[in-house]
Amino acid sequence: MPRAIILAERCKGCLLCTTVCPVKILRRSTVVNSQGYAIAQVSDMSLCTGCGSCALICPDMAIRVFAPEKQERGA
Description:
Layout: E1 3-6, H1 16-20, E2 26-32, E3 38-42, H2 53-57, E4 63-66
Antiparallel strand pairs: 1-4, 2-3
């Protein structure tokens, strides 16, 4: 199952990730990190497709996306 993990202490709350998520599961959290930023959060991890768009656009590298590797056919 794909999943996107927000690294709270790296997130500065710019929310660029929310603009590129194709399934719109990223949003502003009520959680504030030690720097005082309201961080992004994943609202429903079961809907994550593992596309990685959020991680690619994040200027602070605060998102890690884990997607299971696809198995090759006939292997």
